[in-house]
Amino acid sequence: MEIGLTHYLVIGAILFSLGLYSVLTRRNAISILMGVELILNSANINYVAFSHYSSGNVDGQIYAIFVIMLAAAEAAVGLAIVLAIFQIFHTIDVEAAETLKE
Amino acid sequence: MNFSTALFYLIAIVTVGSAAMVAFSRNIIYSAFSLLGTFAGVAGIYVLLGADFVAAVQLLIYVGGILVLVLFAVMLTHRITDVEITNRAVGRIPAVLVIGVFLFLLVQTIRETSWAKAEEILYAPTTAKIGDLFLDYYLLPFELASVVLLAALIGAVVLSRKELKE
Fold this sequence. Notes:
The complex is a heterodimer of chains A (102) and B (166).
Chain A: H1 5-25, H2 29-55, H3 59-89
Helix pairs in contact in A: 1-2, 2-3
Chain B: H1 3-24, H2 28-48, H3 52-76, H4 92-112, H5 127-134, H6 139-160
Helix pairs in contact in B: 1-2, 2-3
């Protein structure tokens, strides 16, 4: 069977499920952020795959670049929040840190 | 099975395997380093899809930037001498059940939908086209992106600085 759109979409679906599993079950804030990165990557795979197989132009790739840009911003702010939580609560377990101030 | 098919399955196995390590590993350092395999594998998938510029951006920003940030955060929030580096996970079984059903439905949908097909599948350099579109049709989002990045930069600095005690 020749490699086609379906194969890439299935990889995207698997990555999305693994990211969702990380976000749902992990209690470490950094692991949750890693799950979010997996989800964003799976969305990007779908964008680029559709751009290649379905539309034939590069608009999908431009959306993928915007997603990568927002992921960078999200990672910077998210990890800064995690470090701030660590300074206040001395843990990054999301169940221990449930208030905004100590 | 020809060469490109074998290459696709190799890259797919690396990507999905590393992502599984990220999701299931008990040690957060293993999770963080497995993210490298996932990001590099996704870059390989972009190359297979003929998206050369996006693949380069993926390597530069994800592997060079976000992964280093994640590793910094992991190292800064755990004492390195701790033997037990916790990466606690709760509610594994319900999550596996729900996500298993969800993944099954997704794959069924993907297989049964007849997706639109492009007239011809091109493997051509994309950088010039992307640059033209960024400075033409996507100019406003492109400029907004720089504002978003500036806001994120300032926000990250404000959040992570030490409070001055008076």
